Hints:
This protein is α+β, with helices and mostly antiparallel strands. The chain has helices at 9-20, 30-37, 52-57, 107-112, 135-141, 150-156, 159-171, 177-185, 195-207, 213-219, 228-234, 247-258, 262-266, 269-281, 286-289, 303-317, 322-333, 346-357, 359-374, 381-401, 414-419, 427-441, 448-459; strands at 25-28, 45-48, 62-66, 71-76, 79-85, 87-89, 101-103, 122-124, 128-130, 143-144, 174-175, 291-292, 298-299. A hairpin with a 2-residue loop joins strand 4 (71-76) and strand 5.
Amino acid sequence: MTFCLELPKNVKKIISVLENAGYEAYAVGGCVRDAILGRIPQDWDVTTSATPEQVKSHFSHTVDTGIAHGTVTVLLGGTGYEVTTYRIDGSYEDCRHPKEVTFTKSLSEDLKRRDFTINAMAYNEKEGLADPFGGREDLKKGLIRAVGNPEERFSEDALRILRAIRFAAQLGFTIDPDTEAGMRKLAGNLQAVSAERVREELTKLLASDHPEELVRASECGLTAYWLPEWDRMLQTPQHNVHHVYDVGRHTVAAIQALHETEEYRAAGKHEQNLLNYTMLLHDAAKPLCRTTDEKGSDHFYGHQKESAALAREVLRRLKFDNETVDTAEKLVLHHDIRFRLVEGDAERQVRRLANRIGLSNIALLFPVQIADIEAQAPKYRESGMRAVARMREAYAEVMRKASCVSLKTLAVKGADLMEVGFPAGPGLGEVLKRLLEDVLDNPEHNTREYLLNKALSEKE
């Protein structure tokens, strides 16, 4: 039976144009892999015997995205398709990039340089599937296997070591024993990989259906170079009535639970990534804060504050933007604030929490709290969920009433105070802060008349 894949119209067009001009051309790599698996490819790449200049001569809109390495982006219908000349990579001197590349007319030579068998397949409608390394069979087996000698592949590009773990997480595959042995042996080469590329792979792993592959990453020695905090988390037990896992495995269970929450599923990619990293780091400092009492019970006093500081350090190491770092730090610091909302005026505490972390960020706390509870001892889940429900209700009321939670929505400004005789200067800010403190406790006081009278009475 002939093997067939349905190629997108524009991919067919690119291949057809190149073939009609006398060149070979195939869809190649991850798009072929995903199409065989019945997944929707995010991008479609083409490989060809045509040189970059020859490719450019046959299409009216192209961009030289990687011309030195043979890649031209062809623009069709507002979408870019990377078209790369068959090539042979030269020596790798930095564990990441070939010093030079040589163009070739051989498809098999081009496929030979690729990382894993499942990514070393090419397809066009004329010739069918080119699969010299058994990638299709490995897809059936659910196997991540390096093309040729694993040590050679990983010596060429250390990022491939992380990609193996990430593919296993995304696809739910196992890693070939020889391939894993090569990963373990050359894990130290990961020090040559930039923080941005590490972040990209880690982000995809955390968002996958199998974030537990983080444990394998540690076992293979990979995280020692870019996330040593994770190794310590896996090595830290929690002999405590509230927990059934060590810190690391509790974190994995929490990330898995996070993915099942309604808020996470409805969130955009940016917010999902933010939540994943919050969950990864919410207990990151527990290894540093662990104490054991005379009864053998572990305690982690102050871990919220220390974990927030550590989250900032880790996210900066991974080159995240300031907004992501700041928000994640706030969420980690307050990830178990629910236990302080069980008693007292819930709405007042929500207002005060909103003043500290921002009203919109409270909504992000709910999936974090739910996931944290789900990953703890079952006997405490019901009470924890009640506390979150109470917080949700209070938050909904604060939102419905449009309660003032910051100086931005305070009924008076500095100009109002100056109108009634307060001198300009930093003292105005202090007066406004005192007025806001009153309003956080008594939202009905947020009127211009009340606040000006209060400010004047305190002035006297």
